[in-house]
Structures are given as C-alpha cells and as structure tokens.
Predict the 3D structure of the following.
Amino acid sequence: MASDPKDSTDRRTQLAADRTLLASERTYAAWMRTGLAALASGVGAKALLDGEIAHWLATATAVLLLIFAGFCFVAGVWREIGGAVPRPRTDMARLPTWLLLGSTAFWCWSAPPCWWAYWCAERKPV
C-alpha cells in the first residue's frame, strides 16, 4: 500500500516547523554567547590594555565592549520573543518566556558590577 501524499506533506511541514524552532533557539544561544564573550572581554580589557596603550583608549575599549554585551543580551531576547515572523506550530516545547527574560535580566544586571569593578580597580603607574 502506498502512503497518502497528503500525510507525507503534513509530516514534512511539521519537521520544517521543528527545525525552525531549533534554529531560533540556536540563534538565541549565539546572541547570549556573544554577549558573554563581550562582557568578559570588557572586564579583561582594563587588566590587559591599561599600561600598554593610552588609558583613555583602554577605557573606551572596555566601555564599548560592556555596552555591546548589554546590546547582545537584549537583542537576543527581543529576537526570540518578539520575532517579526510568526512562529510555526510545532510539537516541540519552546523555551519558556520567563526563563529567557530571567536569564537576560541576570546578565544585564551583571554588567553594573563589572562597571564598578572597572572604575574602582587600582590603576597601575605608567
């Protein structure tokens, strides 16, 4: 017996929706990963660059990296929750919105202590 072509088409559509959901979650993870890398780089910029280059340039580098980290955290959640394209219906469970917002809030709130540590750290004599 041959299978009904309509069933095959419906199954392929469902699998495509599942792949779309997984791709969306991978993209969210990439935004978070980039934000964490920028946050760590911003914190490390003072330790590595201060004394090697002009202080204002080390400060500007650290500030830009910390701002970029916050942007990545917010952009990742914005893209995941408020996507312009409607989400396909899928059998797979999506990441809960509260988890996305909570993790983003945590990482955004971790930036001010990084700023504090940066500004309060003792400067090396040049």
The chain has a mean pLDDT of 78.
